[in-house]
Amino acid sequence: MRLEARHVGKRYGKEAWLFRQANAVFRTGETVGLLGPSGCGKSSFCRLLSGYDACSEGEVLLDGAPLPTFGYRPVQLIFQHPERAVNPRWKAGAIISEGWQPDEALLEQLEIRREWLKRWPSELSGGELQRLCIARALAPQTRFFIADEMTTMLDAITQARIWRTVLDLAQRRGMGMLVVSHDRHLIDRICTRVIDFHELGRDRHDWGD
Ligand SMILES: Nc1ncnc2c1ncn2[C@@H]1O[C@H](COP(=O)(O)OP(=O)(O)OP(=O)(O)O)[C@@H](O)[C@H]1O
């Protein structure tokens, strides 16, 4: 499968364009790293790619067709801030099984404890909540998995364990991965290709506001 950003641009309200004419193609089976300085628009780009936000111009295509607007999302995004990705009025057990029922083995690999499932999001740490979000996003229908600073809030050992689990699943299922991180060491270790956000094929001279 192929996920494509075609002449994509984003601006918030009447603010200046954050980026324009961004082009990129991602394929299932590859793990791509996305690098760029803080504030350049990487998270915004990921939200467009996963269908969580609308492009101000251009389009995102999955095998040549627009992303589905209902049902389970084939392009899953793990946000940098998990507390913004969950419904605070749902208990963890309902959150995790929103799109599918993760199996015991996955919960164990992500070190998710059963008792967390009875708690409200506000009763969980950022790292615990992030692991629930990761499990929620790993349904068999996920074709692309976008990790936006996914493990920043976790300790090194938990980070390594989670990446091993996610990468192993990605390989077995032939998922496509897009990894956004300021950790160059992580990107170099796990990615098959690295792209610089500023090199997504846009011409800064033609922006205009
Ligand atoms: N919903 C929004 N409304 C208005 N401005 C926004 C919104 N989301 C992001 N921005 C602005 O867009 C710019 C880019 O933010 P974004 O989070 O996409 O960058 P980033 O490259 O992911 O940064 P970082 O590496 O620090 O996470 C920032 O100036 C941010 O304040």
From TrEMBL:
SUPFAM superfamilies: P-loop containing nucleoside triphosphate hydrolases (SSF52540). SMART domains: AAA. Keywords: ATP-binding, Nucleotide-binding, Transport. GO terms for molecular function: ATP binding. Residues 3-209 form the ABC transporter domain. The keyword Transport applies. The keyword Ribosomal protein does not apply. It comes from the Bacteria. Signal peptide: none annotated. Pfam families: ABC_tran. InterPro entries: AAA+_ATPase (IPR003593), ABC_transp_ATP-bind (IPR050319), ABC_transporter-like_ATP-bd (IPR003439), ABC_transporter-like_CS (IPR017871), P-loop_NTPase (IPR027417). Belongs to the ABC transporter superfamily. This is ABC transporter ATP-binding protein. It comes from Paenibacillus xanthanilyticus. The lineage of its organism: Bacteria, Bacillati, Bacillota, Bacilli, Bacillales.
